[in-house]
Amino acid sequence: MAVEWTISDDPVGYPEALAHMERRVAAIRDGTAPEQVWLLEHPPLYTAGTSADPAELTRPGDFPVYETGRGGRYTYHGPGQRVAYVMLDLKARGLGVRDYVWWLEEWIIRTLDGLNVTAERRDGRVGLWVPRQGGREDKIAAIGVRVRRWVTLHGVALNVDPDLSHFEGIVPCGISAHGVTSLWDLGHTITMPEVDSALRATFRDVFGA
């Protein structure tokens, strides 16, 4: 199946991104546009998923907060984080929602493995986690999806080189017992275009096209 890839060089505002996803998902559903993966960065902001607890927004004045229809709780987006909005037709691909989330995680796991970073799933914890010394585990990628009439919205956010202090304004995804990391924090000073190339190559291995 043909998938259109779009990369935005300049930061994209969250309302603009959400409006684009809404239009594109409707077009995919109507058969007037192909599936799409959109790679971008946002200016610093927080998003609140459908399960967000206001008590977990610990510094509400730091950045704008946007409510979103995706699952999950609070997440941070900002420069240095590669956001991948994935708009796929699950019905055409024969995928259930749980299968799709698993393969979305697998996409990031395989991408990071190719960059010599081990990321793992954890039962009961959303996102992908990197084991550290002393039993510590830090999140390197957040995942939040929404499905509308079998077409997906939202996707993944991979920490390449964001300002990690910006995560301190929330309890990321409602998990306070573990930290947050990035490729650069782990010593992998990879560029965003290199990350994009890795994401695109691994996507073909996982989802085809």
Description:
It contains 4 helices and 11 strands; from the N terminus they run E-H-E-E-E-E-E-H-H-E-E-E-E-E-H. By secondary structure, the protein is α/β, with parallel strands linked by helices. It has one domain: Bira Bifunctional Protein, Domain 2 (BirA Bifunctional Protein, domain 2). Strand 9 and strand 10 (about 150-160) form a beta hairpin. The longest helix is centred in the middle third of the chain and has 18 residues, at about 95-115. It is globular and about 50 Å long.
The gyration radius over C-alpha positions equals 16 Å
Structural class determined from secondary elements: alpha/beta
Could you give me the name of the CATH homologous superfamily?
Bira Bifunctional Protein, Domain 2
Strand content: 25-35%
CATH architecture assignment name:
2-Layer Sandwich
Oligomer: single chain
Secondary-structure element string: EHEEEEEHHEEEEEH
Largest sheet: 8 strands, mixed
Share of helix among residues?
25-40%
CATH class identity: Alpha Beta
Number of strands: 11
CATH topology: BirA Bifunctional Protein, domain 2
- Shape descriptor reads globular
In the residues, how many domains can be counted? 1
**Count of DSSP helices?**
4
In terms of per-residue confidence, which ranges show pLDDT below 50 for 5 or more consecutive residues? none
Gap between N and C termini: 6 Å
Please state the average pLDDT score: 92
